[in-house]
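Re: the request from the purification team.
They wanted to know what the chain is likely to look like in 3D before they choose a buffer screen. I agreed to run a prediction and write the result into the notebook, where they can find it.
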Amino acid sequence: MNKSSNENASIPKKEKHVRDSYFRNTGPLNFKSRISEQPGDIMTISSNEVVTIPPTMSIIGAVRTMLDKGFRRLPVADAGTNRLEGIVTSKDVVDFLGGGTRHLIVKNRYKGNFLAAVNGNISEIMEENVVSLNVKDSLKDALDTMIKDNVGGIPVTDDDMKVKAIISEKDFVFLISGIMAGKTVKEYMSKNIVTAPPDMPIGNAAKSMIKNGFRRLPVVREDVLIGIITASDIMRFLGSGDIFEKLVTGSNDEIFRVPINTLIKKEVFFTGTETDLGEAASIMLEKNIGSLPVFENSHLKGIITERDIVRSMTE
C-alpha cells in the first residue's frame, strides 16, 4: 500500500487558472460561500468534450466505450439530434450483471441467456429519468443538484435538451485540490465500511454494492486491507474477452463465481484521519481514483470518496 501526497499532483495550466480565479487565498476556505452563483458558470469546469452513445448501442458496446474513454457514465442521446434520452453508469452495469433489479432483464427477457442479453440495446438498462442541468446554470446549481439528487455526474444541455457537456464530482474535487480547506478527512469520511473477503464471488460483490449503494468495496483478509474492488473493475471484467469464452464453454453461474481477488489492484493508496481535504483531493486526482481508505494507527477507520468531498463544499 502507498501513503500518497500531493507534491506531484498534475493540474493543467488552464484548469488551474479557473480554480485559482475562485480561490485566491492561502488560508482555510469557506467553500460554500465561494461557489459561484453566476448564471452560466457551470461551463467553466464542465467537460464539453462529452461522449454520448445512441440508445441502440449494445450493452457490451457501451461498456467498452466507457472502458476505452475511462468514464464511469455516458449520456444516452438521439443519434440524429443529440437530444438527451438517458444515462448509463458503471453501477447500472453492475446491477445488470446480477447486483439488482436490472438482472431480471437477463432472466425474463433473455431466458437466462447472458450472451444474448449483453448484446441487447443499452436503452434496456439506462436510467430514463435523467437529472440534467442547463448551460445557463451556475456552479451552485450543479453542486446543490448533485447533493439533492445523490448523483455523481450530470449532463448539461441547451434549451432544446441537446447534450453540450457533463459535470461530475471529479470536477468539484478538482476545485478543492491542493488548497488548504481547513477540514479534515475524519470529519467527512464514511465510517460505515462494508468490506469483502478476497474469495467473495463477483456476483456477490455486485449484489453487495447495489444493496448498500456503494461503487467500491475494500477487500480485507484477516483485518488487513489488500485492495479495493470497484464497479468499474466489475465492468472491466464484463468487457474482457475472458467472459465470452466462459459464456461459450460454461454456465452463467460459473462466471459470477469468479473470486474478486482476480480483479483487485494490488497497489492501494490511502490517507490518514487528520489529512486536509484539499490534500486528499489532490491524491485522488493525481492517482485518478475516486476514493481513499483512511487509516489511524494502522487501523482502517473509514473511506473518503469524491462524494464526501463534494458534500463538504456545501457546509
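For the purification team: The longest strand covers residues 224-230.
Please add any questions underneath this entry.
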